[in-house]
From TrEMBL:
Coiled-coil annotated residue ranges, if any: none
Protein's organism: Sphingomonas floccifaciens
Keyword Transcription: yes
One Pfam family this sequence matches: LysR_substrate
Similarity field: Belongs to the LysR transcriptional regulatory family.
Name this protein carries in UniProt: Hydrogen peroxide-inducible genes activator
Superkingdom of origin: Bacteria
Domain HTH lysR-type: 6-63
PROSITE patterns: HTH_LYSR
Keywords: DNA-binding, Transcription, Transcription regulation
Length: 298
């Protein structure tokens, strides 16, 4: 008896629709027309004899079994990609495609330094970058959307391998003249929690800053803003408060042309650790370890 199996393309269409929830945008993500994607999913449903997606004019709703099959399809696609990874790993180091997620409190400060060096030393590497918060980056890693993540630890990213690249100290940034800290830095007890501006939930820098301060009242009183470090710096420059910045941001010149001073945090854990993480048992482990070595060369 002939057995008809789903194609990888059909599974790709199904996973894209599950992730995006819209036929048109899912088709764009797969670089096909909407009719091609829709036909591919219908062929898959006909092949297995089950309705996976309920279609209405406004809503795309997966059936319970459709949800389970989409999750399984995602794992199948990831395994298929790893077949190619195994072949690349056996060839030239750091070549072919690599998808890396980078969190927003690292990307604008590290990438301008490392990308020119990677292009020069590894011209056959096609590095596709995705900037997203830590939680989304780790979810994408485990779902196979990305191959590795440039992350700040500690952060719970699941069952992963990691290489620590370097320590990134934390500094208090404040309007010039507002504080006169000693050379050793600012103690957490000296921070006015009512004037502290931090990134909102989802950004691990906020959690690292709160952990470094180790003052429960700061979590309750600090203002959490869903914005970027550059925007918060502008608010500090306008006298609206103070914030905590990583050393890499200061080294990259984030305070240039501002009236902001900075001082290191004199705390028990005044830093975060920058690391490269990837899925355990990945066939590209040697590539990731080599990439980590490159990234650590600041």
């Amino acid at each position: 008896m002939t057995t008809y199996l789903p194609t990888l393309k059909q599974l790709q269409y199904l996973v894209a629709l599950r992730d995006i929830g819209h036929f048109g945008r899912a088709a764009e993500a797969c670089f096909v027309t909407q009719s091609t994607l829709s036909a591919g999913i219908r062929e898959l449903e006909t092949l297995i004899g089950i309705t996976l997606v309920e279609r209405t004019r406004r809503v795309v709703r997966f059936t319970p079994l459709g949800e389970r099959i989409a999750d399984k399809a995602r794992r199948v696609l990831r395994e298929a990609e790893e077949l190619g990874d195994m072949a690349r790993a056996a060839g030239q180091p750091l070549s072919g495609e690599m998808r890396m997620s980078v969190i927003p409190t690292i990307a604008p400060f590290m990438l301008p330094q490392i990308l020119p060096r990677l292009r020069r030393d590894y011209p056959d590497l096609k590095l596709y970058l995705r900037e997203e918060p830590s939680g989304a980056a780790c979810e994408g890693l485990h779902q196979g959307r990305t191959d590795c993540v440039l992350l700040a630890l500690p952060f719970g990213c699941g069952d992963v391998e990691s290489v620590r690249l370097f320590e990134d100290r934390l500094f208090l940034a404040y309007p010039k003249g507002e504080l006169s800290p000693p050379a050793a830095g600012v103690r957490p007890s000296e921070i006015d929690e009512s004037r502290l501006l931090l990134l909102e939930d989802g950004h691990c820098l906020k959690d690292h800053a709160l952990a470094a301060c180790n003052r429960p009242e700061i979590r309750a009183e600090a203002t959490m803003l869903g914005t970027s470090l550059h925007t918060i710096v502008q608010m500090v420059d306008n006298g609206l408060g103070m914030t905590i910045l990583p050393e890499m941001a200061l080294d990259a010149g984030i305070l240039e042309r501002t009236h902001i001073a900075s001082a290191p945090l004199a705390a028990d854990n005044p830093s975060r650790n920058i690391a490269l993480v990837w899925r355990k048992a990945s066939p590209r482990e040697k590539d990731f370890r080599l990439m980590a070595k490159v990234l650590a060369e600041r």
